[in-house]
Amino acid sequence: MDISLTDRFREKVKNASKILFFTGAGISAESGIPTFRGKDGIWNKLKPEELANFNAFLKNPDMVWNWYQHRRSIIHESQPNAGHIAIREFEKVFNEVTVVTQNVDNLHRRAGSKVVYELHGNIEKNYCIQCKKRYDDPSLAFIDSVPKCSECGGLIRPDVVWFGEMLPQDVFRISENAADLCDICFIVGTSSVVYPAAYIPITAKSSGAFLVEINIASTEISDQVDQSYFGKSGEILPDLLKAIMDERRN
Ligand code: OAD
After folding, report:
1. Are 121 and 104 in contact (CB under 8 A)?
2. 29 in ligand 1 pocket by Cβ < 6 Å?
3. Which residue would you say has higher pLDDT here, 136 or 132?
4. Which residue of 14, 59, 109, 232 is 20 to 30 Å from 33, comparing CA positions?
5. Domains (ranges, CATH) in the chain?
6. Ligand 1 center to residue 46 CA distance, Å?
């Protein structure tokens, strides 16, 4: 794909040292992980409030646990795609590259990105709802019914943020700080409709960052960004990386 940079973007690329990627389910779509919204989104088939919340878990722990086991098995089989890899490679071009993701699939880390802030948790981790003991042993990913805590007998839940729950405040604060300081903010594969996560690019913009969106379709934030690239992130990001590397070399 031919990626062209506007004059303003070119200028930003030349002078930038800190960049931030704000990512959502779309970046992992080409790894075979379904997105939440849109044509093939899982929230079209399942109601989030029936599964992704604490009361649903208390009411029917095995059903919720099994749904997460299903998601884990998909993620377990999947690999980071060219989009995740390109984001890692941006570390060779800019001094500071921060990834703030809404995804729980761990694929940015598996791709080798060094600084990854997970706003909605990590599906490979778990903790006890009573005593909060952590259970990050990957073998739990293969148990069919909800396990009980070895310390207190409490139910063990996935370490993801459910509807109605707060984001991990330390992670959100550090992400907001990175957004405040970045020169360019890339918004990749997210519908940008879920708050407070969607404040991240807004914070970046209000602190003067240049916003670049990469998505297969326009979104809630499209009319606020400085540059849009429409297409699959696994195709656009490697080409964009190349164009930016060429620009920095000149
Ligand atoms: P969504 O499912 O809302 O949006 C996915 C976005 O990715 C859409 O804008 C698609 O157009 C775009 N997309 C799909 N395939 C793509 C591709 N190959 N390349 C580029 N873009 C692509 O997912 P999120 O924005 O991540 O929260 O959703 C935000 C949050 O809502 C999730 O973290 C989850 C969900 O409820 C919780 O579970 C707390």
Report:
1. yes
2. yes
3. 132
4. 59
5. 1-33+80-120+167-250 (3.40.50.1220), 34-77+125-160 (3.30.1600.10)
6. 15
Contact 10, 88 (CB under 8 A): no
Which one of 28, 30, 36, 39 would you pick to mutate in the ligand 1 pocket, going by the greatest count of ligand atoms within 8 A of its CB? Answer: 36
pLDDT > 70: percent of the chain: 98
120 is catalytic: yes
Q: Is the pLDDT of residue 44 over 90?
A: no
Whether the pTM exceeds 0.90: the reply is yes
Residue 62's Cβ-side half-sphere holds a number of Cα atoms within 13 Å equal to: 3
Q: What is the atom index within ligand 1 of the atom nearest the CA of 52? A: 38
Q: What is the pLDDT of residues 179-211, one digit of tens each?
A: 999 999 999 999 999 999 999 999 999 999 999
